[in-house]
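Hey, can you fold this?
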Amino acid sequence: MGTDLDLIPGRPAMTRKHVLANAAAVALACMACAAHAGEANPEDVSTVIVSGRKTQDVRATSLVTGTSGSPMDTPFSVSSVSAGLVRDQGGTTLQDALRNVPGAQADSGFNGSHTQFFSLRGAVPDSGTGSNRVLRDGVRLSNYPYVPGFIESVDVLRGPGAAIGVRSEPGGTVDIVTRGPRMANAGSVLVSVGRDDAQELTLDLNRVLSRADGVAARMIATRSRAGEWRHVQDQLDGVKLGVAKDGGARYRLSAGFEATNQVYQPDYGVPAFGNRPAGIPRDRQLGEPFGDSTTDNRIADLHGELAVGTGTRLRADLTHLEAHSTSIKNLLNGSPLPAEPPSTYARVSSWEPDTARRIDAAALSLTSRRRLCGVAHQVFLGFDYYSETLDQPTLGVPAATSPAINIFAPVYGRVTAPPAGATLPRSLTTQDLSARAASLQDQVDLGDWSLIGGARYTDQRFVYGSAGVRPVDEADWSPKLGVLYRPAAGNTVYANLATGLSPNQVASSSNQSLPSRKATQAEAGWKSLWLGGALRSDLAVYQLRQTNMISADQSTPANNFDFTVDGSARSRGLEAVLGGKLGDRLDVSLAYAYTDARYLSNAVYGGKRVPNVARQTLSLWGQYRWSRQWKTGAGLYAQGARFADEANTTTLPGYARLDLTHAWVGKVAGIGEVEVQLALRNALDQRYFVSSHLHVSRWITPGQGRNASLTASYRF
């Protein structure tokens, strides 16, 4: 199968055959035949396919308390973005979803557009071993891709939150909630095409196998292809299967399997030139990998929930991931060469074949609502185990295979693969983490007051580095405290103090893995309902401090990969959210953040501002329903100027991007509903830059120019 890349001299044609491509095609055919095997119920469609805002918000609070509850009664900042909202906005990626979350800003990663990086509340992201740190259905899975057809919602706890039964990153926790079986017969087919060969085909079928026994199954098959406007490919094929037995209020059991195959080429963007992004066409590709990169994930999971008496529930979760990948990169290296013209950069190829990652996670929790001595308590007790192993080999590719390139007058086709049969030097990066933790939390409700107190104890062994690196054994407590007061109906004010713990993925000059980074946050806020509950607002101010951060080891200045944990950073800010309905026709969503993030202690960058973090960001979305058939949406996303690198030498200019959508929805008599959407992103064709790699300014990600997509979905 060829791509647009074949038009660039020196680019190999894409020839890898997908195992999942055939599986997905078979699944699509089988599900299409089965779609009308049972009687469709139009009312079931909204239950299975569309998630209401109220349901999403309630579920998001489980990141804080371990159980569902109203966010108005939670003394922490939580956000939930439904897959339906992302679709309405014409979005397809994790960064598209997070634009609705105040304090979330983009970071650069190079694992394809299906796996995107981000920062929350100005916390420096840790992208060692190419991993973004997200949860999938409450379980931490490194490098988990965002597959639009699988997603129910993206739930976010802003800021660290101890005692939630999982590890918390310093800036917050992002949980990607996937679609599972429901007790309803429903399904959907979605087809989307866009500029530069962007495509998506997804079929989602949910069937009740036995209503009397409460058994249902769900199958989702998808092919998702990112637009190749930067002349690199990214295609993901996936299948998600699930079966569940629902015992009503008594219990629920489910089992699932998910498989994805991704083929992509890393995109390192454009370099800075004169302390600004180079003035070259935004689609100019400067890397020429000699082969495709691949990531294949296999996930199996079991979930169970059981009522143990009145007001008490027991939950158990088991998740296993096997991932295999190959990464082939070609990228600009170092500063411009001292040659004519001065815009010539050296390039280097990197080859990481046969990387293997395995994750095993188990969690057991007990939640109980009780009245003791006339006081209402909501207790959470959790135990969890997490094991992750990663072996990432690297082959040394001869420098002669990657000639330099002039970024203003590139000549393609000169990069070559290593000679066949050549013996290449080999190194191995290992990451092994074994963690056991216990969490205890109590929420006490005293009339108009609620108090939350809890702590998480973690005992873990962690190793990261090359052969012979020594592990770090550590045990630590992460406490948290929250208080909430209800001064009037529809209003709550709150304050909290929360902590978090996250492993550093570096080693010292003495080949010693380093202990975890720590975070402490103080926050105060006000939540309110307006217009009889049609609108909800959330205003928060916070200060977040990180310690045990990595800092360059000045005793070995010649080695850029020797570190200490003498670093620290501080971010403080204000976040505001307003969302809901204005009348019967207009849906609105606003997210604003002011974030002041800078390094404190750091051997090289002390006092510098954290890269990729603008002081001000704004996301504004509105959708107006002209009638039952027609709706129009408009979104504005604005981000101020920010630095591209830790040295603060390069500035990414601020920008404002306008997106427009228009959709028609029609009923198909007796069998379902059709929706057709036209989306125009970056309607004013603004030139902007999404993010940069935090350590250097030669890998800056440009934003796409004006582009359109057409999406049709049939729900039955």
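Oh, and this one too while you're at it.
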Amino acid sequence: MMKPKNIVYVLLFLLSCTAAMAQVKFEANVSKKRLGVNERLRVDFEMNQDGDNFTPPDFEGFRAQGPNQAISNSWINGKRSFSKTYTYFLTPQATGNFTIGQATVEIEGQIYKSPPVAVQVTSAVAIPKDGNNADYLASENVHLVAEVSNSNPYLNEAISVVYKLYVSNEVSITSNWRELDTPKYADFWSQSIDNKGNFKIYEGKYQGEDYRYVILKTAVLYPQKTGELNIEPLTLDIPIDVRTNKRDFFGRYLMTRVNKTVSAGNRTIDVKPLPIKNKPDDFTGAVGTFEFSVNSSKLTLDANESLELQVKISGNGNLKLFDLPSVTLPSSLEVYEPTRNENIRTQISGMTGSVSDTYTVVPQLKGKYPIRPISFSYFDPKTESYKTITSEELLIDVENGPLTANNEPIQESNRQTVTANNNQFKYIKLTANLEPMASSNFFKSKFFWALTASPLVVIPLFILIGRIRRNRLGDVEGNRLRRANQLAKKYLGAAKKNMNNDTQFYESLERALHNYLKAKLLIETSEMSKEHISNLMTTHKVDDTTVSEFIGLLKSCEFARYGGTTSGSIQRDYDLAVDMVSKIDKQFQ
């Protein structure tokens, strides 16, 4: 016969085993803890009891694809084994040490968190050359190239960078790519040439092979420093459809979609300084091919009339990056600050057009005023030499007006500062007709009596609101239904916000429908077979048409999460979900 002491030990052992079997486990498992930046990582969030309201971490440093959900429920020798897994595939965005944060799930009213996992991302590793591997085929058939027009320009000489995406005939892509890294063009003056999303497909060669390509963007750059300058890479995340070895019922090859990160790589530009030899004294940094002119709107006028003197430079070059020559006029001519006018368009060859300064000139005395020639110098990178253009001399003849005190001829000197006369501007009114505001008695106003009477209205209103709130809190069944509806609306609202991301949209929509069914039918997630849902809805007097439409919506969610969809079907499924919840609420008994 077993001693009482031994019986106690056995009971304690059995109780500890039972507690261990009932313990909830929620873990995060990764396929590898060290990977290259060009590899993918699989993360499994696994629980041993059914849970709801799963929330993944933000996956900082990675681009996430998923989740894929799997449920395993089996009985072996009378023991139930349950497993529920959410799987994500992660693509690293940079090298370094990263931490996959905690995911949360609700199990039997308690919130559980998975432990964080540390992952190291190294530089790119060699991809095995496997002709049956979709990642390898995608990387070998899609290439992003940055074509630079001139890698050894002069300072302030225009160069262009054209980003081309080459795609072979073995794979296909859509326009749903997104930029991960955008070049900043440090040490360059830059302007992008927008193609407004109209991507034209060209035929071309890449490393001697036939490819199709599109021009994603074009940038015109003017280097602002000499020496080696770096052009940062353009990096894209692209969904690529790769042909598999499997065929469908009609014998056509099936396609599988993978996401790849492609980069144009860094480009180094070696910028040459402008030559010092033969550099003109009046050179202000103009580089290109230009024409120069100085024109007057009038050559003959009377005193106190005005004329416009225009200094204009036109051509192809860095038109926005240098100063125009200034004019020097006789002191008897009033000269106002010039007005800048730019008519410049940026093409792949650089800036083209004209820039001008227009001076307003007003002569005060009679006489003849010569405007001496003005010179403009620029550097021509085609001939690698400096060139100077000199304007023609202009003679301004003021026929009528006052003479100098001794009637001597006007002598040319430096321009004087303009001093405005009293009759050159409109009269400014300095007095104002102000009137005092009418005084009012606050204690006899309507606002005073409204404030006095407000407690008589507000206090009964608060009492009424309190009674309504107590009655509402006492309605247990009504509160349960309201909480269920609020939860469904919450997830429907989340689905509406994610309409631009089909995976997140259908994940939110499916979660909303499941929570709605749990509240309405009092079932758990593990009982949500479509046949069981149909039977329960029919029992609660929901008509067959509504049941069929609701089951079809669940199937549509499952298919769209893994098979892809369009923006039109997303809007249609969202409207159908709102309609289904409304119909079931009206018919449910």
